[in-house]
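User: I've been trying to design a sequence by hand for this structure and keep getting stuck. Would you show me what you'd pick, starting by listing the structure so we're on the same page?

Assistant: Good idea, let's start from the same input. This is the structure you sent:
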């Protein structure tokens, strides 16, 4: 998943590459500017860290400047993508010699065209077009006919009605899970929040959940883990 390259201690303004941030050695998903801020944030981060390290999440650090240089605001759908024999799936990197390639409606990026082979209720992640259509904020943005760039869209990156895929952590997951071409803007991922969230019975229950990886039950504006649902 995409993680912001910044110190996760709330209020610290260290970010990017110039400040020589180091990631948490256990989960590799949170950065800190030094041991002082890492220790100060440990009371909050320790439950997240334990959960993330068990999942063995592979993280990709990003800065908004880098992402905007590669994908300027308003560039989607990318007009330069055409049916090129040299194209390959931007998610799994399969080539046209290996799979049929199609293009996503929301951003016009090449993906594997094998959704017709998906077995219902198998929940297999081996279908790139289906993954992109189901688990990305950019596709939601297109389907829900929002205006502007999805990365800058409050509706796509913030809570809507508190239920199912409109729950804030789910939206955040859809914006940072590496299936989109690029992550959402950093301001939609508050310091210390990441994309995982506590059970609705916290602090009685200390379980953490990650959309796409955990079974979650939703009720009104809260989400509950398996044990509490």
């Amino acid at each position: 998943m995409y993680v912001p390259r910044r110190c996760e201690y709330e209020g610290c303004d260290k970010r990017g590459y110039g400040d020589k941030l180091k990631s948490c050695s256990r989960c590799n998903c949170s950065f800190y500017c030094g041991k002082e801020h890492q220790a100060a944030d440990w009371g909050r981060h320790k439950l997240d860290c334990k959960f993330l390290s068990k999942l063995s999440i592979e993280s990709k650090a990003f800065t908004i400047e880098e992402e905007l240089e590669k994908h300027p605001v308003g560039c989607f759908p990318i007009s330069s993508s055409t049916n090129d024999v040299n194209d390959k799936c931007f998610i799994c990197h399969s080539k046209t010699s290996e799979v049929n390639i199609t293009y996503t409606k929301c951003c016009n990026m090449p993906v594997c065209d094998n959704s017709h082979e998906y077995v219902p209720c198998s929940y297999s992640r081996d279908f790139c077009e289906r993954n992109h259509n189901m688990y990305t904020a950019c596709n939601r943005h297109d389907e829900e006919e929002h205006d502007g760039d999805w990365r800058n869209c409050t509706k796509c990156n913030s809570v809507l009605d508190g239920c199912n895929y409109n729950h804030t952590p789910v939206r955040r997951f859809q914006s940072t899970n590496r299936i989109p071409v690029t992550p959402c803007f950093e301001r939609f991922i508050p310091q210390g929040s990441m994309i995982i969230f506590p059970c609705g019975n916290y602090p009685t229950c200390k379980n953490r959940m990650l959309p796409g990886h955990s079974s979650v039950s939703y009720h009104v504006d809260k989400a509950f883990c398996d044990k509490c649902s």
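That's my pick for every position. To get oriented when you compare it with your attempt: The mean pLDDT is 87. The helical segments are 35-55, 64-70, 128-135, 137-143, 154-157, 168-176.
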